[in-house]
């Protein structure tokens, strides 16, 4: 079919107008961009410009819902960007199904902040989400103005042995990875509560954490765990100048409090601008076990 000159000009005009519309910012001024593929984002709270933006990253195999209770308290005054990693807690796996996960997630977080004009932003990260937050601050210091890290070590292998290295932990990490991959679904589901109960005391929290683990893509879960255990950020800590607050849990069953404290203080010994806060009577999921204390720490962290 041959277009007339008039029709041709009309088509060109419509394409130009369409391009202009795509370049415009939508309501509330959030830039249009291709959706991230390594994670999804749910935005809650005040409209842009009506309150500070905050980025929240959950941990291994976790849903963004780990922050649900805290989000309700923050949304009247803040604009929350709640992340969920692809492959975790029922989220489609996307490109996380194969290959590296952590570094590509960090780069997409950076792109998300750049395109949506969110730099610098406070970042809250729990567990592996805390590791991702540290990696983001190290790779792109302009992205983050302060960090709240919730029970994250710069090298997770230290929980096995304070003298551990990536090399010494590697065989055990690989064995754990292979065991998770090989485990039948029913066996994994049956064993999940036993593992989860070591991480959270609150019964409802136990149920939610277990459900998220069971709903996760097992390959993504195992591969991300293996990467986490193979990542040691201690050599880079001195270069991460971003102000940081570390929350770590303690309960008497773990042993003497000073030994637990030593684990965290030694691990972060070279990190400048660091405040360390111990949360008593809690396990790994502080937001479930001590929600009021967690909220107080978050509110204090977010104050200008």
TrEMBL record:
Pfam families: Abhydrolase_1
Recorded superkingdom: Bacteria
InterPro entries according to UniProt: AB_hydrolase_1, AB_hydrolase_fold, AB_hydrolase_sf
Residue intervals of the AB hydrolase-1 domain: 54-206
GO cellular component, one term: membrane
Coiled-coil regions listed: none
Gene3D superfamilies for this protein: alpha/beta hydrolase
Record-linked SUPFAM superfamilies: alpha/beta-Hydrolases
Protein name, per record: Pimeloyl-ACP methyl ester carboxylesterase
């Amino acid at each position: 079919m041959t277009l007339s000159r008039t029709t041709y000009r009309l088509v060109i005009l419509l394409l130009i107008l369409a391009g202009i519309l795509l370049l415009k910012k939508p309501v509330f001024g959030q830039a249009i961009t291709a959706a991230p593929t390594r994670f999804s984002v749910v935005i809650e709270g005040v409209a842009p410009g009506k309150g500070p933006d905050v980025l929240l990253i959950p941990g291994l195999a976790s849903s963004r819902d780990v922050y649900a209770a805290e989000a309700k308290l923050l949304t009247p005054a803040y604009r929350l960007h709640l992340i969920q990693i692809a492959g975790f807690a029922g989220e489609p796996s996307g490109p996380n199904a194969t290959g590296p996960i952590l570094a590509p997630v960090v780069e997409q977080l950076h792109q998300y902040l750049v395109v949506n004009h969110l730099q610098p932003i406070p970042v809250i990260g729990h567990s592996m989400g805390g590791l991702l937050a540290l990696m983001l601050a190290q790779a792109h210091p302009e992205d983050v103005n302060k960090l709240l890290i919730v029970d994250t070590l710069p090298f997770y292998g230290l929980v096995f042995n304070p003298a551990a290295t990536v090399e010494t932990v590697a065989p055990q990490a690989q064995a754990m990875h292979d065991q998770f991959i090989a485990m039948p679904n029913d066996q994994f589901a049956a064993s999940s509560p036993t593992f989860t109960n070591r991480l959270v005391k609150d019964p409802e929290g136990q149920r939610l954490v277990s459900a998220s683990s069971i709903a996760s893509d097992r390959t993504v879960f195992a591969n991300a765990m293996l990467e986490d255990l193979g990542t040691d950020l201690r050599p880079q800590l001195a270069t991460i100048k971003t102000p940081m607050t570390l929350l770590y849990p303690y309960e008497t069953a773990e042993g003497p409090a000073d030994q637990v404290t030593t684990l965290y203080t030694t691990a972060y010994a070279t990190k400048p601008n660091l405040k360390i806060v111990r949360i008593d009577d809690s396990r790994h999921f502080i937001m479930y076990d001590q929600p009021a204390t967690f909220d107080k720490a978050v509110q204090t962290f977010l104050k200008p």
